[in-house]
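Two proteins were folded this term; both appear here.
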Amino acid sequence: MVNREKLLLILGVPAEHHGPPLKHEDVTIVSMKSSGYFKGDDIKQEIEISIKENGVKPEYVISDQAHNLTNGNSQPELLQHIDISHAMATCFKHAYGKESDFVSFTTILGKVRLQYHLTDKAYLLPPNMRSIARFMNLNLWVDWGKKMLDCFDGLPKEMQDAYSFILDYKELLVELKVAVAAVEHIETICKTEGFNLANSKKCKKYIIQHIIGNVNNRRAMLGIKILEYFKKQEEKFKDNYESHNISSDIIESTFGVFKQKKSPNKLYGITPFVLFIPLHAKLENKSATKTFNFKERLCNVKLKDIDTFAKKAHVHKLGCSTYQTAQKCGLIWER
């Protein structure tokens, strides 16, 4: 797409996981920069600048498996965790992505959504499958398929005829439902209790029992890939008592809040409204709202100050004919 913009957002959060999942009030905005693209070297440079400006190196970095982010975080002195949700999606893709029954079923779902849209059959349509990161929302249509199987006999004859294809994929859906439930279980452990050696051992044992076990080759392959992921992440610990964050959900959530608030007009591109992101993170801390002097900010912050920020961060003024996408990179700082 012509003139596509990306926003590189580097967040800082406590390096030690203290119990509950990360919240917006735990976040500090370390850096924001807009560009048409970010190569690995560009990201590496931004990280180096952030380290220099903050005077401290991050304990580790969390990001997804995008090549530019992985290359940008490849400095030998930086430990890098791969976000567990993206990693699990990659494991599913490796095990099922080219399987004939999986491919044919997802193809049928796409056709059915188009065929039954705006008809009396639409109320039973499956969730939309994302064209990008399709395996990230695998659980949504697997849950839909399992529910359709459970209630199929009670559907009107016309609906049974329309969705009869679901019966041909009962074995696949049951298999996926078990695998998805197991993955959601270990993700919940790592996100709520932190990623440490004890929890890693607990998760690996659960995967061996509930995914690998006495099953077919492809589900066993899924389990093996998950075990390999945990082994690689364990190698990032310096001692046996560390507990890390291993999820980039807070980054996704930060972008989600921003996208909800910004103008729906995509032609506006990335504007100085991105300043909403650090403001939101700061004001999510309820103790900070009591001391935040809104009147002083309104009186002392001039439009020229915003223009200076926009120029420095390569952010365009309102009305720029560009499209916006988001490039995310979580940088974890010890605070």
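Next, the second protein.
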Amino acid sequence: MVIFHFLLCQPEDNHIFRTLGKGVREIYPPAADPLHEMKNTGIVRSGVCPYIQKTAGKSGKENQKGETAMRNIKIAGIVIFCFLLFGCGAVSVIMPQKTHSDLENRRLEQKPELSLQALLSGEYQRHYETYLTDQMFLRDRWVNLAAGMELLAGRKEINGVYIGKDGYLLEAYVPSDYEPARTEENISLLAGFLNYAVRTYGNKHVTCMMVPSKAWALPQKLPAFASVHDVADTITALEKQLEYPRILLNEEQTMRDHQQEYIYFRTDHHWTALGAYYAYCDWAEKTGHTVRPLEDYDRETAFTDFYGTTYNKAHIPVPADRVELFHDPAQQAIHVSIDQGDVESDSFYFRKEALEGFNRYNVFFSKNAANIEIHTTADTGKCLLVIKDSFANCFVPFLAEYYDKIIMTDCRYSKENVRKFLKSHPEITDVIVMYNVEKFMRDTNLRLLEEDAGTVEKFDLEDFMS
């Protein structure tokens, strides 16, 4: 207790501090009275440490009161903790189960079924623990609180997301996120398909566009000392296996040339319509198409409250994103059919569907789908097949003026062999393959590009939610 009191003291000079420190060490001989020893050695003097003089002479009753108050505080803390733990747990069990978290953009664990086998193996306990965690009362509030505490602690990376500059949240990809064998196989599968497409349609009618991740495209937004997984070797390896390497468009430099503009969402992994426009310009220039100037488009801000996938991982308070749509005044009537007529529309943009959940990016074609067909009045006699991931959703509208028909297929949802699909659609004249590089490296569905591909070997939930 005396040492604790000493630490609270503010000595008048360094000499007194050294003397007091020495005195404290000397006042603990067996059966010695610390206060008596301090007085005898001249440590306690008027004006040096009045707090020690005051507290060291307290009566036993006063000390007992202080100990009682401290004990009551500890008991109150334990009671509050138990109430939060068991009270929230009980409410969570009583309340209806949630199947999906919009905040985290993932499916929540449901109550597991009890069986003797699951109980003995421990599987039931594991699933039940996850179920309680996922269904916790006010769970979203606790998730936000935990993220806020990590931010206050000075963390620059939370749950695989860098806290970047200007409110940007950037994916922190690391080498362990990738399987080298998977990446090598995907490179071989894509290169083989592109070589087949070039032999079928000609090198002027086939393009492969690789889109960089936000962290790779916007290095100026990264926090200091952040490391980014280098994907250059993947691009180089793909290029080496192509019979016509010039069909490969690496959009890394295009994006970096415009990184001071709003080309990627701050809180989502996708690029914005403006970013897609600059990629369209690169494609048009290198394929001999006329580029439509930016000022020719009517630009509409559809939403200003978008929080996307990277926000859902980190839950860091940053400004919401805005979602912009590009309208071509010269565009004639179009018709969009999704999944063989499951959804029909006369517009590229689906505002109602985008408002149904958190994902405002769904304004572009409403969702990812196995097959999307777009019919235009371009009257060019051309038909385009786009093999793509979700980055193509806000890119394809820029192509409508060049093709009478555009077919979009996503191997994550389709089970149809792409080469067989090409043979069954003789109207196709051109092919574009578009992938985000990091997503391409981890894709598990590219065997559909083979000559004799079967069904998809496994369903990737992360791809489904992206």
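The longest strand covers residues 298-306. Residues 1-39, 41-56, 453-459 have pLDDT under 50 and may be disordered. These notes refer to the second protein only.
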